[in-house]
């Protein structure tokens, strides 16, 4: 069962019109859907392979017909054999109703069944001549045909507030993520796919719903459509989720089951998105366009315009079918906040041309009567300076303030552009239609707008929204492939492009790209002004040489990032209750680390094995082999006989947890004040323990880190004696990678043992710290 407000019929329209058309190895490639069979070669050179794309769409690969018969048409029917009697004539691949008078030579075509008819209702497909009642070629539709259809998977659930309703695989390149949420607080979160069941650095970034690969912003229950790039398909990947690339952290993922019987994307069929969409220009000076697609009993509409700040665009139905009349019209007022990217689509009733006052004027429906907002916002974006808002509404009137939209014939429409008032409601129209304007919403898809050229979301030089109106900006695309596909422009949407896009060479390149381990990007350094003073742990403290390593928050702008000069991803090590303190130790003394960083590798965001290394970054598990060769590990791992490096510093998870109702960390002027608001919460289980004895071969500076994630820890200073003046805390500065040192004793570690946590001792040491 799909999302309750999303029907299978509207999934294609939704993906098409939201800038995101472009969407197991048991599927054969190239993939065009479920193969029904080959057309029987009876007359006039008719031939081709017929595929079921979905419940109402047929794809004919390499269709041939000589074009010489006087009245040939495409037919489907439920009778025992092909015939016009009891059959249904189909429109051709262009939506036309005329007979097939042109010649077809190895042409790929897509045909759609009429509304209300599915492949379950028919038994054959034929090229039929009406004038002579002759079957030129046909194929039988099996009774048990398992045609492709959108598939519902699990929803996301993870850390940093990542969650969603069950995800729908709309087609082989399109994912619908309903009610997606993410707190936006991590520095480098991306939508991510890869091979296998679990995310890793070997995966690929997926552009967001606007075609960009920037770190994800905050989402609050937003329904989005994502498109797999280039010719990557759902059959190539084993998981999808949100991944913090710079810190190699899984924020939440789902497994992609195999096999998935989903439709091919329109791109895979070589179909231009514009051929499936309608578009009309409303006001050329501001590039105001309306784009739409019918979706069962509803319509999906996209409004596009180059608006000034704090301006709206409105579009709706006139109460008079013969004239464009503002008063009494049913319109949708929409806009996008430039600063936040948040979009709005509000159902309005215009009882007057004035601003809304009480229940009179140009008012949101809900101001007049409760529960009458009949519009559902699907997507909103600011792309290249253009506001783009996509919404859905019923074709029927759902309350007394709504007007129906006809499937047949022209409707008079109204539109307007103007500023919002202080209540974020319409104030007046600066631009509106002064003449009658009519649209046939139920027509065959026709694109009467400029062809989307120029900059594409996610393309070169479009890493940020361009706010400079003086610069030449790209026209907002409707659904053209995003990003650099590496395919010449003229190759898009030609007759045999489906084959070109799914060539074996492309698929081999794709799989190689997914399987490669690439360097993990280094986060940009951040300013370290305003860092909290964290008391260093001196080499004579604690007396028993026991350190308690637990997890906790990074401390906002005064914490991890300001202390280290590197951005954190929300959590970091706490040692003896202190946020990443610098630790001073003496060579020849044995130290014990009681580790409580999590012990379940199945939940990567809560699994933080502790280890000590000369690498200032951490995250050994996800490094490339050439990087590992230059890294020494002194404690927290064990090398198996096969040479595998296994973390041993694992134990139950204990978190220093902030007060959910308290002020943010940024508001505290000292760590001491902030620390007193934290509560230590531990999962059931036992801690892990590692021991370490630095010696003469240990560098003067090493680091404590997380084995599976980068940038969670800080420095350990190693001295010959406690009298060494260098034991004082070093100055704060950005991490610098030292020249690698490697010896035969690369891994010097002991395996973990278990014992009870002595939290009373740890808290006693905390009580001695002055703030």
UniProtKB/TrEMBL annotation:
Entry keyword set: Repeat
Region (Disordered): 443-490
Domain of life of the native organism: Eukaryota
Residue ranges constituting the DOMON domain according to the UniProt record: 286-418
Annotated ranges, domain DM13: 33-142, 145-257
Keyword Repeat: yes
UniProt entry tagged with the keyword Repeat: yes
Entry-linked Pfam families: At5g54830, DM13, DOMON
Acidic residues biased stretches: 461-474
InterPro entries: At5g54830-like, DM13_domain, DOH_DOMON, DOMON_domain, Spindle_Org/Thrombomodulin
Classification via CDD domains: DOMON_DOH
PANTHER family reported for this sequence: PROTEIN SKELETOR, ISOFORMS D_E (PTHR24036:SF13), SKELETOR-RELATED (PTHR24036)
Protein name as annotated: Protein Skeletor
Organism: Stomoxys calcitrans (Stable fly)
């Amino acid at each position: 069962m799909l999302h309750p407000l999303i029907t299978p019929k509207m999934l294609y329209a939704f993906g098409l019109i939201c800038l995101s058309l472009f969407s197991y190895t048991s599927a054969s490639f190239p993939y065009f859907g479920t193969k029904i069979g080959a057309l029987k070669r009876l007359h006039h050179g008719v031939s081709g392979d017929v595929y079921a794309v979905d419940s109402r769409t047929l794809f004919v690969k390499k269709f041939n017909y000589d074009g010489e018969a006087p009245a040939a048409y495409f037919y489907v029917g439920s009778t025992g054999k092909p015939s016009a009697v009891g059959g249904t004539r189909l429109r051709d691949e262009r939506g036309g109703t005329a007979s097939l008078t042109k010649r077809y030579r190895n042409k790929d075509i897509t045909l759609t069944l009429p509304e209300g008819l599915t492949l379950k209702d028919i038994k054959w497909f034929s090229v039929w001549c009406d004038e002579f009642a002759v079957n030129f070629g046909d194929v039988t539709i099996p009774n048990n045909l398992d045609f492709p259809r959108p598939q519902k998977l699990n929803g996301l659930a993870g850390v940093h507030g990542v969650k969603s309703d069950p995800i729908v695989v709309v087609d082989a390149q399109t994912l619908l993520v309903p009610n997606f949420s993410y707190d936006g607080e991590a520095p480098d979160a991306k939508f991510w796919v890869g091979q296998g069941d679990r995310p890793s650095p070997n995966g690929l970034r997926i552009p967001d719903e606007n075609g960009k690969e920037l770190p994800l912003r905050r989402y609050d229950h937003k329904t989005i459509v994502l498109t797999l790039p280039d010719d990557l398909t759902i059959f190539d990947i084993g998981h999808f989720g949100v991944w913090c690339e710079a810190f190699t952290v899984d924020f939440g993922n789902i497994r992609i089951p195999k096999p998935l019987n989903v439709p091919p994307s329109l791109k895979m069929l070589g179909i231009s998105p514009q051929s499936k969409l309608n578009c009309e220009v409303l006001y050329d000076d501001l590039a105001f366009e309306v784009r739409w697609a019918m979706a069962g009993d509803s319509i999906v509409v996209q409004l596009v315009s180059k608006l000034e700040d704090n301006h709206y665009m409105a579009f709706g139905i006139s109460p008079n079918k013969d004239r464009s009349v503002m008063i009494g019209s049913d319109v949708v007022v929409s806009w996008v906040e430039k600063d936040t990217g948040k979009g709005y689509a509000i159902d309005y009733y215009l009882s007057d041309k004035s601003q809304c006052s009480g229940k009179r004027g140009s008012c949101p429906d809900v101001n007049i009567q409760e529960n009458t907002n009949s519009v559902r916002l699907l997507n909103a974006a600011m792309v290249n300076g253009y506001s783009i808002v996509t919404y859905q509404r019923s074709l029927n009137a759902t309350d007394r303030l709504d007007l129906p939209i006809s499937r047949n014939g022209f409707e008079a429409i109204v539109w307007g552009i103007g500023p919002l008032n202080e209540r974020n409601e319409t104030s007046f129209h600066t631009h509106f239609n002064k003449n009658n304007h009519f649209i046939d919403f139920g027509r065959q898809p026709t694109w009467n707008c400029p062809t989307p050229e120029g900059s594409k979301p996610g393309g070169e030089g479009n890493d940020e929204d361009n706010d400079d109106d003086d610069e030449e900006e790209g026209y907002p695309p409707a659904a053209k492939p995003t990003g650099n596909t590496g395919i010449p422009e003229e190759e898009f949407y030609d007759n045999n492009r489906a084959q070109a896009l799914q060539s074996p060479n492309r698929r081999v390149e794709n799989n190689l790209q997914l399987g490669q381990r690439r360097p993990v990007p280094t986060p940009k350094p951040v300013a370290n002004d305003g860092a909290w003073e964290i008391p260093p742990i001196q080499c004579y403290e604690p007396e028993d040489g026991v350190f308690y390593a637990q997890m906790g928050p990074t401390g906002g702008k005064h914490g991890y990032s300001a202390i280290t000069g590197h951005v954190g991803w929300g959590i970091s090590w706490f040692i003896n209750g202190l946020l990443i303190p610098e630790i001073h130790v003496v060579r020849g003394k044995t130290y014990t680390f009681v580790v409580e960083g999590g012990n379940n590798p199945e939940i990567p965001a809560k699994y933080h094995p502790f280890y000590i290394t000369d690498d200032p970054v951490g995250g050994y598990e996800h490094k490339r082999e050439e990087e590992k060769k230059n890294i020494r590990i002194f404690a927290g791992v064990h090398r198996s006989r096969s040479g595998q490096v296994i973390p041993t510093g694992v134990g139950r998870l204990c978190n220093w947890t902030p007060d959910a109702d308290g002020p943010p960390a940024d508001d505290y002027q000292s760590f001491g004040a902030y620390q007193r608001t934290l509560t230590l919460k531990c999962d059931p289980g036992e801690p892990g323990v590692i021991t370490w004895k630095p010696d003469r071969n240990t560098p003067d500076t090493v680091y404590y880190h997380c084995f599976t994630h980068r940038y969670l820890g800080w420095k350990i200073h190693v001295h010959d004696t406690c009298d060494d003046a260098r034991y004082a805390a070093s100055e704060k500065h950005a991490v610098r990678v030292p020249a690698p040192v490697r010896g035969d004793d690369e891994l010097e570690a002991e395996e973990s043992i278990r014992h009870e946590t002595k939290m009373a001792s740890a808290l006693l040491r905390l009580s001695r710290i002055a703030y």
